């Protein structure tokens, strides 16, 4: 069964606090980066949670998840996950001074600035980055993988300008 694991499909499972996703060519499982909202703001102790949603029954032996009970958390530290998984999907966060926003520093792309914010009036979490030099709402990172090594990654999102324009930028790691 071919399940469309795009941003909107994943958002149906996760809800409005979905920041962005990472997909790869090896299977249909999706790495989710979700805002952790508490008391109407991003939790300063853990502003972002990252985990896998196992959509691909060929890799998990399970059917497509009916709920998020089949998600697997990826800790922000090395313990409990494989070394390559930590390097590819691990991250750390730091607050953006006096804003309530948080910068995500991805281990695989430490120079790619991603800022996550919570918009309480709309009850949504957004991730912002530059795509082709333009400020965009990040939706998806797609990795073309050969073995354990990515050949390239693609950042996808929509410009902040009106009307929003879809942009895609392909990078080699």
What does this structure look like?
This protein has 173 residues and is mostly beta strands. It has helices spanning 7-14, 57-60, 83-89, and strands at residues 18-24, 27-35, 37-38, 41-42, 48-53, 71-73, 91-95, 102-106, 114-119, 124-131, 134-146, 149-159, 166-171. It has one domain. It is 11% helix and 48% strand. The strands form 2 sheets. Strands 1, 2, 5, 6, 7, 8, 9, 10, 11, 12 and 13 form an 11-stranded mixed sheet that branches. It has a two-stranded antiparallel sheet with strand order 3-4. A hairpin with a 6-residue loop joins strand 7 and strand 8.
Question: Quick check: average pLDDT?
Answer: 79
Let me know the largest β-sheet: 11 strands, mixed
H and E order: HEEEEEHEHEEEEEEE
**How many domains, in number, for the residues?**
1
Shape label: globular
CA-atom Rg in angstroms: 16 Å
Number of helices: 3
Helix-strand category:
mainly beta
Strand content: over 45%
DSSP helix fraction: 10-25%
* Distance from first to last alpha carbon: 31 Å
Enumerate the spans where pLDDT stays under 50 for 5 or more consecutive residues.
Answer: 61-84
Q: Kindly state the number of beta strands.
A: 13
């Amino acid at each position: 069964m071919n399940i469309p694991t795009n941003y909107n499909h994943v958002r149906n499972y996760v809800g409005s606090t979905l920041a962005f996703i990472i997909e790869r060519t090896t299977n249909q499982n999706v790495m989710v980066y979700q805002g952790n909202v508490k008391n109407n703001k991003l939790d300063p102790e853990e502003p972002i949670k990252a985990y896998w949603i196992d959509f691909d029954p060929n890799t998990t032996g399970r059917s497509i998840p009916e709920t998020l009970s089949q998600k697997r958390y990826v800790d922000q530290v090395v313990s409990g996950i494989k070394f390559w998984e930590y390097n590819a999907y691990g991250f750390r966060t730091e607050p953006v001074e006096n804003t309530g926003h948080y910068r995500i520093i991805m281990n695989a792309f430490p120079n790619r600035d991603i800022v996550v914010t919570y918009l309480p009036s709309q009850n949504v979490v957004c991730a912002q980055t530059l795509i082709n030099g333009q400020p965009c709402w990040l939706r998806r990172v797609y990795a073309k993988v050969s073995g354990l090594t990515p050949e390239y990654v693609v950042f996808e999102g929509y410009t902040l300008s009106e009307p929003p324009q879809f942009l895609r930028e392909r990078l080699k790691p």
